[in-house]
Design a protein that fits this description.
Length: 363
């Protein structure tokens, strides 16, 4: 050989070809291949970008503390277990650098995200593609593909372009039957489109080998800034930070991402206190929870001027609601399995299910 040779597997990678970004005679394009937000970037992010322009001569934060704190507040997570990347793609790269390599098998599904394969091949890993069942991830097929050499499993949930989602029951079965030495990556790039679902965060908190990936590119409308984040066990996050560059996200991207999360947190907190409550208990709830729920719902029901004569009764119900707060927390804990972060404020907003009195639990 008279020229340098790359590592094995690199030349087997086919160059990524993005979807068309322009059409002759058409000004505003909606790229369905990229699922870009048609509403464009939010005003809060645009303002943050404009303000960041005056400090472009300075390096960005190396620990992303502001963005991680905003994400933690928005999703009810632990900031120290969050890692940020230049899109969730970069986090996939970190995972493959750290936990894949020659002789290591990486499992992905038939219609999984292309970057799973590319980054695994770049790490020299052996790819194992499992078929899907009518475009749904087949848990049994994944389990049957696991061998002593398996190092990582990638699952897009919800899937793209299939649009299908794995139930929490199937995920729980997969995690329970997978060896604890195998890293399970739950790619939730589209988790924000599933109302009331945490993207798999509860599995991350319950297991030491599960990592959740998310992005601000889709629903958040920041695809051009490339901001992604992951949530995982502390020992995995520590490893990924060792291969992460100190300035992997630009200062404008950090500012816009933080502003977007802060605005969404504020809107969520305001919205959940003004919305008409909905029934919240699943069929598996304790029987005593039903009358308590009705009483608590009455206590937070908005009072219109036409119904002001009910105000004394409402006050009594509110007082009773606070007395019953401990019971409510017990019921929420039995459903959410999240005893460490039940309260968001004194009225019992659950950090796990989103809004305790607003929408049904989806677990």
């Amino acid at each position: 050989m008279t020229q340098p040779q790359p590592q094995p597997g690199i030349l087997d990678i086919q160059l990524y070809v993005g979807g068309k970004s322009s059409v002759q005679g058409v000004r505003d394009i909606l790229k369905l291949s990229s699922n870009e937000n048609p509403n464009g970037p939010p005003a809060s992010a645009q303002q943050a970008l404009a303000e960041a322009a005056s400090t472009l001569h300075r390096y960005p934060s190396s620990d992303h503390s502001g963005l991680r704190a905003a994400l933690a507040e928005l999703h009810g997570l632990e900031a120290q277990r969050i890692i940020c990347g230049c899109g969730s793609d970069e986090l996939i790269s970190f995972l493959c650098q750290a936990y894949a390599g020659p002789e290591v098998e990486v499992i992905h599904t038939e219609h999984g995200f292309l970057m799973y394969r590319l980054y695994a091949m770049a790490a020299g890993a052996r790819l194992v593609c499992v078929p899907e069942a009518e475009r749904h991830v087949d848990v049994e097929a994944i389990l049957s593909a696991i061998t002593p050499r398996t190092g990582m499993i990638f699952i897009a949930n919800p899937g793209n372009p299939t649009g299908t989602k794995i139930s929490d029951e199937d995920l729980a079965e997969l995690i329970a039957k997978t060896p604890k030495t195998v890293v399970i990556v739950l790619d939730g790039a589209y988790a924000d489109y599933v109302e009331g679902w945490d993207g798999g965060a509860r599995f991350v908190e319950a297991h030491d080998n599960v990592v959740m990936l998310r992005t601000l590119s889709k629903m958040y409308g920041l695809g051009g800034l490339r901001v992604g984040w992951g949530y995982g066990p502390q020992h995995i996050i520590d490893v990924l930070n060792r291969v992460r560059g100190p300035f992997n996200i630009s200062a404008p991207a950090l500012a816009a991402g933080e502003a977007r999360c802060v605005i969404m947190t504020s809107s969520f907190n305001i919205g959940r206190k003004t919305m008409r409550p909905a029934p919240i208990w699943p069929r598996s709830s304790p029987r005593w929870a039903s009358p308590l729920t009705r009483l608590m719902r009455i206590s937070f029901w908005p009072v219109s001027p036409a119904k002001s004569r009910r105000k004394p009764a409402m006050t009594i119900c509110k007082a009773w609601a606070f007395l019953c707060a401990g019971w409510a927390a017990m019921a929420c804990r039995s459903v959410c399995a999240s005893p460490c972060r039940i309260w968001r404020d004194v009225r019992g907003w659950c950090r796990r299910c989103g809004a305790f009195w607003r929408k049904p639990h989806e677990l």
